[in-house]
Amino acid sequence: MKKIIIALSLILSNPIQSDELFDDLLLNLDAPLSEIGFDQKTTQSQDGVKIAYYEKGSGENTLLFIHGYGCNSKYWWAQLGSFSDDYRVISIDIAGHGESGRNRDDYSMGKFGDDVVAVMNHANVERAFLIGHSMGGPVALEAAVKLNNRVKAIIGVDTFHNIARGPASPFLRIVINTMFRIRQDSSTEDAVEKQFREDANQTLKDWVSDKAETTDARASRGSLSSIISMDYPSQLKKIDIPILTLNSKFWMETDLDGGKKEYPGYEVDFIDGVGHYVMMEKPSYFNNWLENVLESFLTNQEI
């Protein structure tokens, strides 16, 4: 019944594009990833928390997808099936999200990075491309610091907007964390609303908003606190790999010049006419972009 209702919404609403892959995504928002052939597996992070991940494919190169704040592996539905024909594809639910455990004491970018390391080790992945959306970008960075030469490159999706910026001041962190704790539900709803353009598909907006609002409260607060405390310049000094991200011009301004000065291996492509969830709102465009990026990286003998 739910798929019939969503199908009707495609006819009655004005979707952001006529992309068939986008239409398929809307019909499968709540479908288990097993329907596209992915096996769910579990391991434990360094602190003992259960981490769920999904795997398919046996290509020579591994792609590890990392979702963002309040999200889960299903946000990558349009990519997972498409790339698993030619690559080994893994998608992780970081702690406090999706099917992973919620018994963590410290929800931070560093601990989320440990989750990625745990999956890489459990799946016996020698090297991988880390692909992170939004908060998944800094999570990939933290993982790369720990994994060293096991990461070929970090590929971002609307992330790494201000990598030249250090952590927020202690006073600002207290203010933001306090306000979020008081108004968590409404703050989350407002934040998601601002991440979409006015002409975005309403079904997708509602689904993303619902998932964000029902994310574990402690995981949400910990994630926000850790994001604003992120010290990019310090962590970037510990890696030497390419970082390439596809950023929307809509949601948040990207400091490209400052980023390149801080980290010479930082590159950004931009996309118009789309909100924060680029890989969901324009999946065919994004998949073509990602395929070209991967092909370019793989022709470089240093990758």
Secondary-structure blueprint:
Elements: H1 2-12, H2 20-27, E1 39-44, E2 50-56, E3 62-66, H3 77-83, E4 88-93, H4 109-122, E5 128-133, H5 136-147, E6 151-157, H6 170-182, H7 184-194, H8 202-213, H9 217-228, H10 232-236, E7 243-248, H11 256-262, E8 266-271, H12 278-281, H13 283-298
Parallel strand pairs: 3-4, 3-5, 5-6, 6-7, 7-8
Antiparallel strand pairs: 1-2, 2-4
Please characterize this protein's 3D structure:
This protein is of the alpha/beta class and 303 residues long. It has a single domain (2-298), classed as Rossmann fold (3-Layer(aba) Sandwich), CATH 3.40.50. Helix content is 44%, strand content 16%. The chain is built from 13 helices and eight strands. Strands 1-2-4-3-5-6-7-8 form an eight-stranded mixed sheet. A hairpin with a 5-residue loop joins strand 1 (39-44) and strand 2 (50-56). Helix 4 (109-122) crosses helix 5 (136-147) and helix 6 crosses helix 7 (184-194). The longest helix is centred in the C-terminal third of the chain and has 16 residues, at 283-298. The relative contact order is 0.15.
Q: What is the overall number of helices?
A: 13
Task: Characterize the biggest β-sheet.
Answer: 8 strands, mixed
Based on secondary structure, the structural category is: alpha/beta
Question: What is the overall silhouette?
Answer: globular
Report the span from N to C terminus: 47 Å
Summarize the amount of helix as a percent range: 40-55%
* CATH homology group: Alpha/Beta hydrolase fold, catalytic domain
Radius of gyration: 18 Å
Topology as H/E string? Answer: HHEEEHEHEHEHHHHHEHEHH
| Order of strands, widest sheet | 1-2-4-3-5-6-7-8
Give the tally of β-strands.
8
Under CATH, the topology can be stated as Rossmann fold
